[in-house]
């Protein structure tokens, strides 16, 4: 059903690609992170909530959007999108042709975050899964526990008259952590890269708290004791000086590894991820009932080996996915997308 080519995942029967990393005639997009949604293709098919994000990041193109579980027939292939739970609008792609069903998960997480849509297991013959955190060491705490940790950290900073700077990818965690932040304060600011995504999602009807953009004109006095949400690229830039005195907290699944926050030279680390942990990956794979599993980006060797040991046919696949947020934030930091110019004040 799907071939793994040098342009991306190709469906010969339908003559389309899923999340191609090179320009193609027709691209089906799982979500708006830059490694899965790249510029240059002639047409794009995505979920309704992914559409405004693609328009923000890729500009004007020929777009078609559909809802979850809304079938589209392309050259005899029945295609439908299903919630992936990764970020707002993120979807799995189900393909059915001649009685055979394949599902490409894109990126996903199995804990419902209340914002991105709850992950929906889709029964299939063949499942293509990510493995970003495909090691047993990665087991997430419940989201609310992490949110409470973030809220308490902000309160502690406030008691010391410090601004709380939370480092979070502009598309995904930057929206999620607002629940934890707004439980403490409404005095919330954001880097322009975060603000542009936030504004786009609000205009699309996503109920998010109001935040303010940090500009060169923002008075320092207003920032004291506030919360500032910034992308990773801003963490060690001159832009940060405006918030002195401040404390920095990083929201990332990589914070699960002890000592990572210390090595990153930040004050706190919160192991909040938009990807499934090890139990989540196994749970999702098992729920599909798939007879064969292809494992893409991340710890694919470890996960595919484990699946084979459990009696499930699995194989590794090399793709150009992964490091999605890092690539995006680097571009945002340098004013390539989302910003007219980098913010350095």
TrEMBL record:
SUPFAM superfamilies: Metallo-hydrolase/oxidoreductase. It comes from the Bacteria. GO terms for molecular function: RNA endonuclease activity. This is Putative mRNA 3-end processing factor.
């Amino acid at each position: 059903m799907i071939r793994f080519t040098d342009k991306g995942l190709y469906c010969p029967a339908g003559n389309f690609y899923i999340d191609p990393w090179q320009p193609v005639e027709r691209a089906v997009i799982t979500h708006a992170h830059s490694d899965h949604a790249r510029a240059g293709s002639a047409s794009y098919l995505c979920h309704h909530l992914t559409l405004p994000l693609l328009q923000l990041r890729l500009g004007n193109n020929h777009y078609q959007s559909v809802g979850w579980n809304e079938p589209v027939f392309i050259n005899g292939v029945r295609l439908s999108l299903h919630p992936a739970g990764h970020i707002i609008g993120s979807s799995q792609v189900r393909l059915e042709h001649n009685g055979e069903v394949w599902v490409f998960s894109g990126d996903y997480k199995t804990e419902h975050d209340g914002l991105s849509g709850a992950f929906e297991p889709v029964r299939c013959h063949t499942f293509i899964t990510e493995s970003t955190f495909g090691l047993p060491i990665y087991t997430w705490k419940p989201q609310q526990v992490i949110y409470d940790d973030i809220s308490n950290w902000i309160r502690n900073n406030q008691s010391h008259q410090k601004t709380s700077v939370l480092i979070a990818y502009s598309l995904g965690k930057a929206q999620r952590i607002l629940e934890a932040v707004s439980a403490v304060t409404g005095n919330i600011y954001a880097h322009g890269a975060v603000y542009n995504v936030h504004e786009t999602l609000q205009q699309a009807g996503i109920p998010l708290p109001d935040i303010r953009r940090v500009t060169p004109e923002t008075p320092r006095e207003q920032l004291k004791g506030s919360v500032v949400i910034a992308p990773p690229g801003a963490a060690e830039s001159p832009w940060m000086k405006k918030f002195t005195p401040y404390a920095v907290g990083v929201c990332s699944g990589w914070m699960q590894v002890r000592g990572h926050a210390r090595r990153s030279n930040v004050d706190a680390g919160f192991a909040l991820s938009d990807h499934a942990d090890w139990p989540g990956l196994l749970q999702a794979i098992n729920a599909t009932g798939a007879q064969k599993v292809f494992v893409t980006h991340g710890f694919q060797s470890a996960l595919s080996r484990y699946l084979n040991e459990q009696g499930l046919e699995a194989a590794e696949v090399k793709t150009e996915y992964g490091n999605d947020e890092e690539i995006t934030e680097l571009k945002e930091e340098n004013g390539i997308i989302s910003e007219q110019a980098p913010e350095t004040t």
